[in-house]
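Give me the fold.
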Amino acid sequence: MKYYLIDGFNLAFRCYYAMPDLTRSDGFPTGALHAFFASLLRLSSMDTPHSTAVFFDKGGSKRHLEIYPEYKANRAEAPENFKRQIPNMKYLCELFGFEPVEVEGIEADDLLGSSAVSLKAQGYNVTIVSADKDFAQLVSPNIRQLLPPKPRVKEWTELDTVGVKTKYGVSPSQIPAYLALIGDSADNIFGIDGVGPKTAAKWLKDFDDIETLIRRADWIKPERFRKIVADNADILRRNLQLVTIDTSHNVELEKNKIPDFAEIINFLEEMEMKKSLFALRKFAQDQYQISI
């Protein structure tokens, strides 16, 4: 039993910035839609059969903002052409047979993480589809992370427990401590000034976790960081709360349905995505032995 859990906005943004500004004949933007549709086809063809869920943010994260009101405050407004395509991306997910998951005030990361842990406990092998390094903390023998392709690179990258250690220099369970130390500029979380990935990984190898690092600050090398870490103990603890995914939510995932090929065709024709129609027909034949 397998489940793919997709970080919707993470994938959507990557699709938007990976494509030129394509438009329908009336000027409606479709660039991100082309890439998002291709990604759904690709993911739906991997490790079949599997179930799928896609998670989106809805409003700000109440939990994070209570801890740190400046959480994600550095983010600029999303481009208008991107925002106009989001409803259609969600609609595509529905047409493919999986309902988007979103809850007001709860970050998609927490919803996805809760689902991953719950599904693992039920005996599923879970694949988290996201480039967000926060999800590396959930990687285990039954949970892997699948990183979308980078620009000009077509291959998806799988991270298992060994892959996380190779990429970041720490174990999955140490990822929150690692991020607490180096910070996460994308979320407006500031780490210890001057501490980069290599230093953070070395400290966690020596001290294992944040509390031990704080308690044994007098042992830290280079020595210049000893007072800095001690003085910033509360910030490190706050950061740890911010970057640790809350897996306690009860998330109801709807049972997947077969893709509504007739409606997908209508959608692609309406969006004037002619090349995508050829890919859809091949997908239907390969995965469902259906001629459309």
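The mean pLDDT is 95.
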